[in-house]
Amino acid sequence: MSFALYKEVVKFHGHSCPGLAMGYRLTIAALKKLDSIRSKDEEIVAIVENDACGTDAVQYLSGCTFGKGNFIFRDFGKMVYTFICRKSGRAIRASRNPEFLNHLRKNGPSREVMIELILKSSDKEFTKLEEVQIELPPKAQLYTNVVCRDCGETAMETRIKIIDGRKLCIPCAEKTKKSF
After folding, report:
1. CA 78 to chain CA mean position, Å
2. What are phi and psi of 154, to 5 degrees?
């Protein structure tokens, strides 16, 4: 386990915490199982099921980002991450081993002790990895920008709403609907 790499993830995130350590461990284990490395473009897709600290580890280690369109957020409140390798079509779903969580709750009274237990545990102790079949999401699309008739800001054409013949961004369209 590379603690130097964990320190880089901490620097990216801003602080060390159990959630970041968990995201770090799950990402490293899943990428190893996929025989994949950091995504330069869209070679890897990450689907995350929460918006907590661990997702920063996913972004930093996998190279998956919202900007590249290969970081997908599903708000299920679960610390579960699915990584898909576009080249092989393989997908790994990574979650925490429930037995380890029970051990952690009993033996990790402080943040520091919890982080140490997470980082020093074996993959077998900490992670639950399963190969899954999943439909590969399409690659990121580029869209034309359209100027909103009310606020003057641009928005992707796919997000523009037409109300009374006016092309409006979503916030302006929602304001217009509320005024009726």
Report:
1. 11
2. -95, 150
Torsions phi, psi for 26 (to 5 deg): -65, -40
Q: Hey, what are 70's tokens?
A: 């290969």
- Its domain, for residue 160, covers 145-178
The sign of the torsion formed by the CA atoms of 61, 67, 69, 75 equals: positive
pLDDT tens for each residue of 70-83: 999 999 999 999 99
**Within the chain, what is the greatest distance between any pair of CA atoms?**
63
Do 174 and 101 have their domain in common? no
Question: Residue 95: in which H helix or E strand, if any?
Answer: strand 91-96
Counts of helices then strands in the chain (DSSP H, E):
7, 9
- CATH number for 9: 3.30.1330.130
Are 108 and 169 members of one domain?
Answer: no
Full-model pTM: 0.81
